[in-house]
# Entry
Amino acid sequence: MQILNQIIQGLLLGGYYAMLASGLSFLFGVMRIVNLAHGSLAVLAAYLILVIVQHVTSNVVLAVALAIPPMVLVGWLFNRVILQPSMRGGFLVPILATFGLSIVIDNLLFLRFGADTQSLAPNIGMLSYSSWNVVGNLYVSQLDALTFVTALVLLGGLQLVLSRTGIGRAIRATAEDAEAIDLIGIDSRAVYTAATAISLVLITVAGAFMAMRATFTPYAGATQLIFAFETVVIGGEGSLWGTLLGGIVLGVAQSLGAQINPIGFLIAGHAVFLVILVLKVYRGHFRNLRLRAIIPTRSSGATA
Amino acid sequence: MSLLSIQSIDARHGLLRAVNDVSFDCDQGDILALVGANGAGKTTLLRTIAGVHAPHSGRIVFDGVDVTGLRAAARVHLGIAMVPEGRRLFGSMTVEDNLRVAAIRARPGSWNLDTVLDAFPQLKPKLRSPAGQLSGGQQQAASIARALMTNPRVLLLDEISLGLSPIAVDQVYQSLQALVATGTTILLVEQDLGRALKFSRRVMCMLEGSIPLQGNTGEVTREQILDTYFGLGRETVH
# Structure
């Protein structure tokens, strides 16, 4: 029963990681950019929601809704001022640029809010500690369940947008071939901007749940980035449902690790990430070796 | 006033001058074939007209509007569309999605999903198939159909027979007749000289970035073209 309990807690934790990583995975899938400011942007969203809760409305859901438009604006600026110009400089420049942005965000937050820990938990009442007794000693946190369901809704909604709408088709097409999308009259820069805006919406919701689940400080972004990055790598870069799977694997590993040793929470997660990363690297390496052996260096011939 | 006017265009790849002071005009309904050896500058010229390669100097005027500084997407809105070399379909998306995505910012016009499928009936049974799984001929048809969904006034076709079997090429050119009937201007880059001369009304032969030979297909002989093609003659026919 104890193991089952840990697995279920890990699965629910995976929902949070999937939510946190979805924006990172989505942006990588569309723009092929590893956004190292992802965690800091989530913390920025958390502080914005906190400010709204303290000064505008005490309703957290409404505060999240009010935080989304300014975060989308941040996304627009982020895309136009940092991502698109840096993309022209090659693969490495956006990584350095987003790393630089994360430092700027962290320190500006520190300047404004100081090092005090903050949380939205006091603003959500009983939801922060209430749970359901499923059977025997098996309890499910209501906030964890809400987090998991929200992750499912976000990923499902994003999947629907990508598969059923015009902007979704344009985003998928741009992810495959940005020049070809320009050639059919859709400005790839506008699509990139839309994708960044969507990513920032996902980041905002993830930031809200991070703030409701735990405490945060201006420098909490780095830890969030690591968890998001591990989730994306485990689940498959750019894959939405893979992100959910990656989050669940990471969450279950951490939960089971904590059962063995309190420090095992982090170690087990990192260990699973490393094992999967090594397997992926070697699988790719061996596949390339096989392909080189099978495929001639230059292929020719007509196709019907 | 011509529909498309290329004025002293110079395009480069780094230090390499791929297109060298090229000028020509196209009228509504013109069908121009651009022929030349590999590396002559044909694709660079087409990409420059489409807006995906920035010219070093010169002007491109479309329907009286200087489009030289416009991005490719903006040129599509004015009516310049391109079928790129290698088809460049969105391989993981279905054929239908490839066509529908091209309709998102399309100009108003007669081409829509139904009319495009009438022109390319071979695509009808493949609408739900991923574009990357089609045969080469079907992919080429889908690529042209996708460009048509934008309702172009000028269609730039780059090496549409490349890598296709003769039967598939026949089918593609047969389907293009529906396009010719609409009065769309076509600028065609083609390695197959016979097909280029048969399909087009004017031919331009490129050599080392320039167009030393151009004229109506009835007036320019195959020998003149071949001489220019291989750099043996630089005669200009008007």
User: Anything to note?
Assistant: The radius of gyration of chain A is 21 Å. Residues 295-304 of chain A have pLDDT under 50 and may be disordered. Residues 72 and 197 of chain A are 5 Å apart (CA to CA).
